[in-house]
Amino acid sequence: MSNAPKDHAATAPAPNFIRNIVEADLAAGKHAQRRWAGHPGPAAEHAGAPLDAAKIRTRFPPEPNGYLHFGHAKSILLNFGLAQQYGGRCHLRFDDTNPEKEEQEYVDSIVDAVKWLGCSWEHTAASDKDTDETNLYYASNYFDWMAQFAEYLIQAGHAYVDSQNAEEMRATRGTLTQPGSDSPYRARGVEENLDLFRRMRAGEFADGAHILRAKIDMASPNINLRDPAIYRIRHATHHNTGDKWCVYPMYTFAHPIEDALENITHSICTLEFEAQRPFYEWLLERLAEGGLLQRPLPQQIEFSRLNLTYVVLSKRKLIQLVEDKHVEGWDDPRMPTLVGARRRGYPAAGFRLFAERIGVSKSDSLIDYVVFEDAIREVLNESAERRIAVLDPLKLVITNYPEGQSEECFAPNHPLKPELGKRAMPFGRELWIEREDFMEEPSKGYHRLYPGNMARLRYGYVVKCTGCEKDADGRVTAVLCEYLPETKSGTPGSDSVKVKGNLHWVSAAHAYAADVRLYDRLFAVPAPGARREGDAPDLERDYLEDINPASKQTIVAQLEPSLKNAGAEERFQFERHGYFVADRVDSQPGAPVFNRTVTLKDSWSAKPAK
After folding, report:
1. Fewer CB within 10 A of the terminal residue: the chain, N end or C end?
2. 63 part of the active site
């Protein structure tokens, strides 16, 4: 990989249609009259407040029921990036409306992941017209308002309590081509509906006994407008509200209300929510008509989700990978989770560069994993200091170098950043080199060590190979060389002897023997589980069959001694090999374990398709 510096900021950003929408809204002053009480709330809370100092408000609203993955990173960076670019705020909101699947563990993990990506929901006031804000919110803190809004819909004739069971409701819903039919309970009066809903809240009924539905149109061509459920009974303990509630809002009801309470201007989500937008807009209009929400209302905008080759992002599949022990947990460096990515050594800046390059559109597309890895390499090439590691060690003995003697050679910490200085590397009679850097019978074009040939020990001396030693099985155990004392790198006349081979090495007496994990792509094919040419018509492939058996190899490598002091998450380029990181979990002071983040060059594009 080239060491030439690159200006990430100068890279032309890929198209982003949402930026166009935001800029048009700002130019038209669409949101200029919004008021903000300094905290979320219904219209009455904001009515007497100052104009909102934030020109736009976006949000990242994860449900705390799992670990974030690469697709979430795209959404995080999009929402926080737009807010930063256009003088706005981005909220981190936990959509914790399902008490049966949510845990504090996931809340903590999500907070850490968003911070790790370099995003902040904190805002410090820049003037007296501004306010300090900590825009970290929980949907569960809005349950009182949501219940009030549900009662308003009942009183306005826009909602009713349905006492059908789930099977009966499915039978009356209709299909994509046939209309649904009214529930026998649709004509219940306002007083009865209000009484039943309040008794649902009081805990009088078992789970599933009743459900609150919006009253819209059972004949609508959009199946999502056929009286969707908006509240259900669930006797479950909630991670935030405890046992206060036994009725919980459905996601499709809660989500638009959360946006409106928080003054969100642009509610950005992936394309699978496009069919839900009519209900999103219907609900907000009904509540605004009743004076419960201020205008202008949030605008839902959909974009295509992230699709990467060699990766699965389905929650079901990720859970299976973990539970069936195909990987070693959610933070396994091969997993496409953000905790896994961090442990792998992927820098957050690499995600930001990748997101900027792929852009935002409404069209589904499959992004080659090479694009992601190239962004990672580019960031690491500029930021990672260089070190020497011998991954497949073979002893080299310099027979004319005095026994017991050692000296220092000096290597730059970064070829592009001389201000980072140089480091000393001990040099002695016995060294470790890569096994591939010696051939007893060289192939054509081989310029490294073989009997009679000379090569340079990088940052050290030129050596001439005089032979080798073997064990009883004929395996080479040591390479024998003589060094040329006048050729030490950095000294006058060091380049007087011209050689083509340049080898890396570490002193055998000083090397740090470390566990190194060579991680690669978890799957061996671009589309795990997809049918392939020549498959029988009735063949169904299992994506697990496409797991790459070589996705993790653990070796003991010989490293230059300075690496023994590497701290957890410290990243390096191991020269000639790739980028590595000290594992954030298994590294100990004075005993780091290294994970390969990515190779120096893409080695997959040239592989034949399977």
Report:
1. C
2. yes
